[in-house]
């Protein structure tokens, strides 16, 4: 049986990714490692820290010891740590947002990125710019923070989270060719958006599809 270990920095990403695996790879064994102090520490520092990277290494090393065929990093805020750890961990590591970033850079030259956490916004923007550069594409990125949405979600007020986020997405969609939702926790809003002027991309589905492709390539 295929074993996939998913490393989360908060509980809000667990169910969306589990749901996608049920649809895409129902026979796989999914193991979730959750440490919500990782994102809290990144947010407190304002950036990825060596201490957070070290703890991620420990979790991914443990995943390797568990016999994981693939490790999925579920958090964009610590995605750049994954780039370092790929050279240290034998098990292949997939970033949940990497495929989404590449797709966004293909769709258009004006890319909007929406986040509810500042520490996710900047790494996502850098990842999109990196993917565009790899393919020789010229892009511009417009960033937006949905102020107060993440705090509402943590407080259990999903309705307020969705209202703030929807307003931010719809306003940004008027200015760009594609909107990227920078966090897995935001994907649950996509069905409620209805018809939008431009594509709105989220990472759970594309991230899980990237895992499936990576496994097929092994």
TrEMBL record:
Signal peptide: none annotated. One of its GO terms (molecular function) is amino-acid racemase activity. It comes from the Bacteria. Pfam families: Asp_Glu_race (PF01177). InterPro entries: Asp/Glu/hydantoin_racemase, Iso_Racemase_Enz_sf. Belongs to the HyuE racemase family. This is Glutamate racemase.
């Amino acid at each position: 049986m295929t074993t996939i270990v998913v490393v989360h920095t908060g509980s809000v990403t667990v169910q969306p990714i589990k749901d996608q695996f049920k649809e895409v790879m129902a026979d796989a064994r999914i193991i979730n490692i959750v440490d919500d102090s990782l994102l809290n520490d990144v947010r407190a520092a304002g950036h990825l820290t060596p201490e957070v990277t070290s703890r991620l290494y420990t979790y991914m090393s443990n995943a390797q010891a568990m016999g994981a065929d693939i490790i999925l990093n579920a958090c964009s805020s610590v995605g750049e740590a994954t780039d370092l750890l790929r050279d240290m961990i034998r098990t292949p590591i997939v970033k949940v947002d990497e495929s989404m970033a590449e797709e966004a850079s293909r769709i258009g030259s004006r890319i909007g990125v929406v986040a509810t956490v500042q520490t996710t916004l900047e790494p996502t923007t850098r990842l999109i710019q990196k993917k565009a550069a790899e393919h020789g594409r010229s892009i511009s990125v417009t960033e937006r923070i949905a102020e107060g949405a993440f705090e509402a979600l943590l407080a259990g007020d999903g309705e307020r989270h969705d209202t703030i986020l929807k307003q931010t997405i719809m306003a940004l969609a008027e200015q760009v060719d594609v909107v990227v939702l920078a966090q897995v926790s935001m994907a649950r809003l996509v069905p409620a958006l209805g018809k939008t002027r431009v594509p709105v991309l989220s990472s759970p589905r594309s991230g899980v599809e990237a895992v499936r492709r990576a496994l097929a390539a092994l």
